[in-house]
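Note to self: user wants both folds in one dump. Writing first protein now.
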Amino acid sequence: MASELIETTVDKFVFRVKLGCWYSPVGVWVQPEGSLARLGLSDFLQQRSGDVAFINVRPVGTVITVGDEFASLETMKVDLALDSPVRGAIAEVNEALKERPELVNQDPYGDGWLALVELGNWEGDRQALLDATQYLEAIRAQALEEMGG
């Protein structure tokens, strides 16, 4: 499936959002794949956080609910705890990130994914998430506000 991106430009920054994903207000994306969902950082969140130096995802089998920390990352700018936008159990962790955490910055919607989760209640969880267009508008407004415009 070819991934389509929509984007917005604020000042000199370009922020991309992948269509077909759902987004938590803080910028964790969810891509449903049948009874599973792939989770990762949005382009906006990875740009704001800086170059990822280290990432830790909870181990396979960990049961998570909405708001539980499922991963954490360290950059030169921030230490960031990532809350899960869905409930379920972690089915797979992106092992490539142990050796190459920069994939989160280089390909946030592709090779930089964080975890695959076996969904517990997708229909319920989806109600609190934004679709790509809604998320694009939200990050544009946030970026403009942060720049004082």
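First done. Writing the second protein, which came from a different request thread.
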Amino acid sequence: MQVVVKKPHIRMEGEISAELIKFLKEKYRDVEVIENEDEELVEITQSDWYRNIRHQISPGENMAIYRKLHGLSQETLGKRIGKFSRQNISNMERGHRPISKAVAKRMAELFDVSVEKFL
């Protein structure tokens, strides 16, 4: 059995008491209990689905995905990676403006991912 709490990230495996599961559900609400070994959680970037679809995602779409995952507005992202206006960020996300290597590098550092995601 596995129990996974999304935020804060807690993962337990093995024999887990019903009392502990009840406590976690009351305390954190977003708790997933996996009783079947075949339903083991997999890091999304290691899944077949992700490997197949990642070639269909443009650098601008990746930019928008990571910006939203980190709760940043276009304006805030523009300030964090340089002096870019909201409109410039919007144009990069929609593919109307290319993402330079320098900007890709700053975003990779900001989001702690590979620079290739934005090139």
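Dump finished. Worth passing along: The mean pLDDT is 85.
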